[in-house]
Design goal:
227 residues; mainly beta; 5-stranded mixed sheet; 1 helix; globular; immunoglobulin domain; Periplasmic_pilus_chap; Ig-like_fold; chaperone
Length: 227
């Protein structure tokens, strides 16, 4: 008799939509410090009951031991077709007040036992960002994006973030009106990030790019000056 195979697929958030039973109502969570908690809404879109395990990781995805924040509940059951909510609660100390802090929310589906032999089951692992935003920053993400400093040196493009917020850059548009883009990445507070350009690429005096806004969508910035 053939053995029953269970396939556990670890897939990032941006690619799970066609597989995951538990659908997320957001692609990121913003935790404002003047709130007692932050939340993430979930829904079980399948016709089976699922268990869900949740935990947080530091920015570098290392141990959870030093995180002064907890996710409640860490394990929950979500019945078929039902909704649920995860809450994130900060202990009130341990995080800097002059910049954002970043954590990774991990969501591991635990599917029910297969009713039939030779059944393929997919247990999706989703990961999304949680930003803790201190109230005293007195700025917005959109404002901080416009303070970025862009500089090209040879085939390197250096982006400097002199502000207190994480900026998730999406694409750099090399040629206006064309599909020739470069995928960028997140720039941490008070730091810079270097991206490699295709050989012989000259950016010119301005750049056009997109970034991920607080709602998880993309916003465009056109003809931004390069120094």
């Amino acid at each position: 008799m053939m053995k029953k195979f269970i396939f556990f697929a670890l897939i990032q958030l941006f690619s799970v939509s066609s597989f995951a039973a538990i659908q997320l109502e957001a692609t990121r969570v913003i935790y404002n410090s003047d709130s007692s908690s932050a939340s993430l809404s979930l829904k079980n879109e399948s016709d089976q009951n699922y268990m869900l395990q949740s935990w947080l990781e530091n920015e570098d995805r290392s141990s959870t031991a030093t995180i002064p924040m907890q996710v409640i509940p860490p394990i929950m059951r979500i019945d078929a077709g039902k909704e649920a909510t995860l809450r994130f609660i900060y202990a009130g100390h341990g995080l800097p007040a002059d910049r954002e802090s970043l954590f990774w929310i991990n969501l591991q589906e635990i599917p029910p036992a297969a009713k039939e032999a030779n059944t393929l089951q997919i247990a999706v692992h989703s990961r999304l960002k949680l930003f803790y935003r201190p109230q005293g920053l007195n700025t917005t993400l959109d404002k901080e994006v416009l303070k970025l400093v862009w500089k090209q040196t040879g085939n390197k493009l250096v982006v400097t973030n002199k502000g207190p917020m994480y900026i998730s850059l999406n694409r750099l548009h090399l040629k206006k009106g064309s599909a020739q883009d470069i995928y960028l990445d997140m720039v941490s507070p008070f730091s810079d990030r270097t991206f490699t350009l295709p050989a012989n690429t000259q950016i010119g005096s301005t750049v056009s790019f997109s970034y991920v806004n607080d709602f998880g969508g993309t916003s465009e910035v056109n003809d931004f000056p390069v120094k």
